[in-house]
Each structure stands twice: as C-alpha cells, then as structure tokens.
Amino acid sequence: MEHQSVDSDKSIIKTGVISLGIILCVVALILAFSDYDFFSTWLVFFFMCGVPSQLVITMQMETLYPDYIGRLRQPVKGILMTLFTAALAAVVACILFFVVGQGYGPPSPILITYMILTVIVTFWIIPVMESWPFTLITRHPVFLGVISLTFSYSLALLIFRIFFDFSTMAGSPVYVEEIDPKGLFDASTAISFFVTSNAMVLLLLLTRMTLIPGWLARSGKQPGLGLAATLVVFLLGLACWILFTQVIGMDKTMYMVRVPVCFIFGVFLVDPLMQHEAFGKLGQPLRGIVLALVAFSLAPFVFIAYSAAGPVLTGLDLSSGAPGYEVELWVANALLGITFPVIVVMAKYFEFWPLKRERG
Known about the structure:
Elements: H1 2-32, H2 36-60, H3 67-70, H4 76-99, H5 109-128, H6 141-163, E1 164-165, E2 185-186, H7 187-206, H8 214-217, H9 224-247, H10 252-270, H11 286-314, H12 326-349
Parallel strand pairs: 1-2
C-alpha cells in the first residue's frame, strides 16, 4: 500500500510538472505573438473578463454545467468548455467596456484594475460566502452561478467607485478622467490591499478554513463562517500590507506584484496543478500552512522568471519601478491575466488530458 502511495505521489508530481511545461509553452506563444500594447490592453482585458466565469464554472458548478458539455468525455468537454467560457467573456467584455469603461478604448489601466477587482470579489462571494444569501433563493448550480456572477460584478463596481482614485495618473496618456471614480484612496493603495486580501483568502482555502477560531466561526454555517473568514482575511491582509509597505517601506505597486501576486500564482502551482494532493498526509491547518510556505518561497523565483521573459517575449527593454512599472505590470498581467486562465483550462476543463486519462 505504501509503495502504491509513493507511485501515486510521483504520478501526480509528474503530471503537474509536465502540465506546467505545456501551460508555459501555450502562454509563451500567446505573449510572443501579441504586440505589447495589444497584450496590456485588449488581450488582458478579454482574458480577465473570463476569469470570474471560470471560477463559477469550476468552483460552483464543478464543470458539470452546462450539462450538455459536462457529460462529454475529453478532449471534447475541455474544448467546448473553453469555447463556452470565451463566449461568456466576449459578452461580459462588451458590457463592461461600455458600462465601466464608457467606450474609451483601448481598455485603460483604470478598467483593467476594475477587472482585477471583479476576480477578487468573486473569490470572496463563492468559496468564502458560498454564495450566501442567494442559496436561500435557489441551490441550482446554474441559477446560483448566474446570480453570484452578476452580484460579483455589481459589488466590485460599488467597491471600485467608493475606494479607488486614479488622480495621480492625471496627465498620463492612459488616464481617462471620465472613468476615474475618484474614490477614498489612491488606486495603488487600494488595489495592493485588495490583492493582499485575495492572497489571504487562498491561505484560508488551503487550510480548509481551520485558521478561523472555532468560537468566531460559531456553527460553521453561513453567514457566520463567511463573515468570520472575512474578518480574518481583513486582519491578516492588513497586517501583511502594513508590514511590507509601511514597516519595510516597499513601493506599493512593486510590493503587490512581488509578494501577493507571485504568492497567489505559487498557490496555483502547488495546489490545483498538484491535483489538490500535495502534502495530503498532513492534517489541517498544518497542510495548508506548509503549502502556503512553499508557495511563498516560490514567489521570488516566479517574479525573476517572468520578469526575465518579458523583454524576450515583447522585444522591448521594459523598465522596473516608478513611474511606468513596466516590468511589474507585465509580470502581473502575464501571471494572473493570462497564465492563470490557462491553468484553469488545463487542470479543470481538460482535467489534465491527455496526461491523465478518464476511467471507464
């Protein structure tokens, strides 16, 4: 039995490593054949319009819906699920381009920032709040998914308009005053904090919510569990953000990309790509903490690798740091805007086909 377990672990690692190689090749092709300006505007915008739908399809519907696709075998299921998501992304892109972006093209950093926020809010609505209170209305995965997705975009827009201010970009050719919400905080402060909070959400998910004190989570049911998790995420995120930006004194944009963004990507490497089996013999919360530590240790290498690939794939001499943050923004867009959706397609839509064959 122990020998079979070792063989299974090796198989999972092998599948994950080969899958990562395939994913990076696909991403490199996408980036290499994309003009830098097109990549940083239209391409990233389109891909990110599909990410909240991917979260709903994988985390809420478990790729079983639409049922006429969910019943199919691989690779047909993966192909059609990808096309279905692309169609949803196209619809969402058209709506948000005119509603949030007010038709100003190409998509500006202001609109791209809103898209990042939609992903963060969707991560909060679905795995943390488990789509409460909409579960009181329906539990059908499709209806629940549509409602959750609509609410995520709406809530993200509300948060965006209250907290984000892009006035420091005034005078820049990419600044569009008409779509600047002029909220309470400078955009770099707001987005760096919200991305940090998303990293804390993933930490809780890795530990299966066991980091939440029992007395705080109460019965473990919604909305108590979700609200408790939200409080823990806020406190951990705030502590992390203050440590790096105020105590250590890192530039907020550079901190956001080098720490929480690269950590988030590290989580994708050690958990979904490892079929959620890495360190499976450890109990919680130890397993989740170990996974988080591994993800955090991978973060510097992820940044180094992607920042080195930037000039090669773009053919441009990208500059790091203020005022343009070209390297940092390229890395963030390439990681979460392009590579993450491709990981979802490989791991969830195609279920690691053809590396992992279906049984029966």
